[in-house]
Amino acid sequence: MLRRRIPAAAAVLVLAVSGCAGWGGGPGGGGPDSINVLMVNNPQMIDLQRLTADNFTKQTGINVNYTVLPENDVRDKISQEFSSQAGQYDVASLSNFEIPIYAKSKWIAPLDGYTQADTQFDQSDILPPMTQSLTADDGKLYGEPFYGESSFLMYRKDVLDANGITMPARPTWQQVAGIAARVDGKQPGMRGICLRGQPGWGQIFAPLTTVVNTFGGTWFEKDWTPKVDAPEFTAATKFYVDLVRAHGENGAPQAGFTECLNNMVQGNVAMWYDATSAAGSLEADDSPVKGKIGYVAAPVEQTKSSGWLYAWSWSIQEASKKKDNAWKFISWASSRQYEELVGRQVGWSSVPAGKRASTYDNPDYLKVASAFAEPTRASIESADPRNPGVQPRPAIGIQFIDIPEFTDLGTQVSQYVSSAIAGQMSVDEALERGQRLAEDVSERYQSRQG
After folding, report:
1. Hey, CA dihedral for 99, 399, 415, 93, is it positive or negative?
2. DSSP H stretches of helix in 118-172
3. What residues does 135 pair with on adjacent strands?
4. Nearest CA to 272 among 360, 133, 179?
5. Cα radius of gyration (the chain)
6. CA gap 262, 197 in Å, rounded
7. Which of 430, 449, 443, 444 is nearest to 197 (CA)?
8. Quick check: helix, strand or coil at residue 79?
9. pLDDT value, residue 449
10. DSSP designation for 252
11. Interatomic CA distance for residues 387 and 398, integer angstroms
12. 386 Cβ partners below 8 Å, 6+ apart?
């Protein structure tokens, strides 16, 4: 959620060199043996674009016309295109946040028929929580993951060892807070932990909602009763705010994924709770902390696990006239054969992992990912997007509530919580304001049920 992006200028260069996509414009050629794909400009997607002509097109005769945009822009464009059902784009990159919502609106096509017929794709190899998160309330599958992630705790093994501290394999948040206090300042300029404080439903509330879940809280109960100012939600938020204020990174109210990654790489923090996808950067050949990081399960309190679940995935527009060719593209792009292609031609550290069980048995991948591969798989496999807390939920989602209103609700409440981290208001005041916003949302859903 809101992670590394390549600069727009770099993406423009890639598009110009490949000659098979437009930048923010309409799709390319629309011949019978072509499909139009609208996707985010993440590095793994750019690798896909580079590899398409010499591999997928050569094998199938299907040309792929890509339109590639930064994350916020592509979300807006996909929403506009798919809501209108104009059929200009056959495939789009959507996350497990949008897919159940789009499926309910009948903007995207179910894929079950394709997965059953295409035995080579091997749906059973897709990690079950990923399949579950891309399955709508009607029980049908509407997306296939390109790459996925969960969350875990990353820590400096050398720093903890030097202070006689052993990190539990499945720590509690209270244990993490205690360790943060013990290592804070033990090395010059090093704080105990980095936790996102930057406003945004996909920034601070990605990790914070998992803390709320494991502390026994929830945004809404099953009947849509809002619980933002409930004791459990409040206790989790106070714990998070107090921890980052006492032992967290400098500039915490502005720190998101990128800032925490930089802090960890530069040795400014001893621990970091965030996305499993961060490990690839920490273990990169040019990383100063390569080999110094340990990885353990997301901290818990009342639940058995607490890691989030996120996947950039592929869906077919319902209005597409080329669904069969669209599936052939998805089947290739999300296949284990594509992962092997990336490993050979780009490098195994660039494989779009986090979606297939077979990835974590691949010796070539494990050579570069041995430090974090098993903790990543364990975190994804333990994620339960339909039951992430201690009480039933009205909608699917771990670090989010899968309703269109959550983007605004989560972002507005995040601004208040970030202000609490900055010392500009109390947590109680922040969540009282958040409760009023949540009540407005709950009224809409309760009225529909009534």
Report:
1. negative
2. 128-133, 157-162
3. 141
4. 179
5. 22
6. 15
7. 430
8. helix
9. 74
10. G
11. 8
12. 132, 393, 396
Contact predicate 328/314, CB 8 Å: no
Per-residue confidence (pLDDT) for residue 30, from 0 to 100 = 53
Copy the structure tokens of residue 155: 């820590």
One-letter amino acid identity for 160? L
Q: Is the separation of the CB atoms in 397 and 310 below 8 Å?
A: no
Sheet with strand 310-316: strands edge to edge: 21-22, 63-69, 34-40, 91-95, 310-316, 144-149
Predicted confidence at residue 401, as pLDDT, reads: 97
Q: What is the dihedral of CA 90, 91, 92, 96, to 10 degrees?
A: 130
Q: pLDDT value at position 279?
A: 96
- Helix ranges (H only) for 248-309 are 257-265, 279-282
Report the C-alpha dihedral over residues 240, 242, 248, 253, rounded to 10 degrees.
Answer: 80
For residue 40, give Cα distances in angstroms to 146, 323, 388. Answer: 12, 21, 28
CA angle centred on 349, ends 197 and 144, rounded to 5°: 75
Q: Which amino acid is at 81?
A: E
Low-confidence ranges of the chain (pLDDT < 70): 1-32, 450
Q: Which residues pair with 46 in a beta bridge?
A: none
Query: Which residue matches tokens 């922040």?
Result: 430
The pLDDT value recorded for residue 72 is 85
188: three-class secondary structure by DSSP: coil
- Beta carbons within 8 Å of 89's beta carbon, 6+ residues apart: 27, 36, 37, 38, 67, 78, 81, 82, 317, 320
Q: 315 - beta bridge partners? A: 92
Residue pointed to by tokens 């394999």: 169
Looking at residue 7, what is its pLDDT? 30
Per DSSP (E only), the strands in 5-163 are 21-22, 34-40, 63-69, 91-95, 144-149, 151-156
Within 8 A by CB and 6+ apart from 249, the residues are 191, 193, 194, 195, 255, 259, 260, 263, 268, 269
Residue 231, CA distances (Å) to 194, 431, 439 in order: 25, 10, 16
- Structure tokens that stand for 261 in this block: 């990654």
